[in-house]
Automatic annotation (TrEMBL), chains A, B:
Entry keyword set: DNA-binding
Residue ranges of the TM segments: none
GO molecular function annotation: DNA binding; DNA-binding transcription factor activity
Domain HTH arsR-type: 1-95
Protein name per UniProt: DNA-binding transcriptional ArsR family regulator
InterPro entries hit by this protein: ArsR-like_HTH, HTH_ArsR_DNA-bd_dom, WH-like_DNA-bd_sf, WH_DNA-bd_sf
NCBIfam families for the chain: HTH_metalloreg
Amino acid sequence: MVNSSALRLDSIFHALSDSTRRSILRDVASREKTVTEIARPYAISLAAVSKHLKVLESADLIARERRGSFQIVRLKPAALKPAEQWLAYYEKFWNTQLDALERHFQGEKK
Amino acid sequence: MVNSSALRLDSIFHALSDSTRRSILRDVASREKTVTEIARPYAISLAAVSKHLKVLESADLIARERRGSFQIVRLKPAALKPAEQWLAYYEKFWNTQLDALERHFQGEKK
DNA sequence: AAATCATTTAACCAAATGGTTGACAAACTC
DNA sequence: GAGTTTGTCAACCATTTGGTTAAATGATTT
């Protein structure tokens, strides 16, 4: 219950922890792309890209669809929501922390 | 340049990809804690917790301070900002995607 | 200064990660 | 149908990860 959402976050954050994968997400955010198209900018093998796609897919961050001989990849951005919500919790903390810092350096003007 | 901020995001997202570490962050968000205090709820060794803290520290998500014989740990929530900013980019995508979905299922009422 | 408490480090282990190359399968093209 | 294109899978490799236990360090107490 709690655990499944924890596993979900594990897989999302893990998927995002690699800069190639984050970059691929940006790539497919602009428009759907084939695997070969996605691989083009990167200096790694197609097989390596295929593995990255599997990681992104298991985090539910992309979807694939067979279109003829091509595999079409598209972003599933809604899957990032749990991560954003998790982070949102800390927003109040960093705001108050930064406010305190500002008061410290500028002198509190009442 | 671009690369150092990528490494930064790598380490932040990696730190967040483990549920014990996310849980520790929540724990220290409420107030400063010592390492032993942090370790108490978890069924792992103190050494393992110490390693988790090192990961969180290298992502700059916590700070430690020696106070007598204790190591006191506190949240540095501002370090989460880059992650939040990275995710913010995708907000527009998931909003438009969810809007489209809603129109699809509810029928577009003008 | 000896004992104890708080924490880190070292050495180890199994599993996962990110990469490779090569074999394979499926769909298109000639 | 033979060959090409598109992509995945299997086997392998080095490194990292998340855990362990045991030894080492640092501060406090007695």
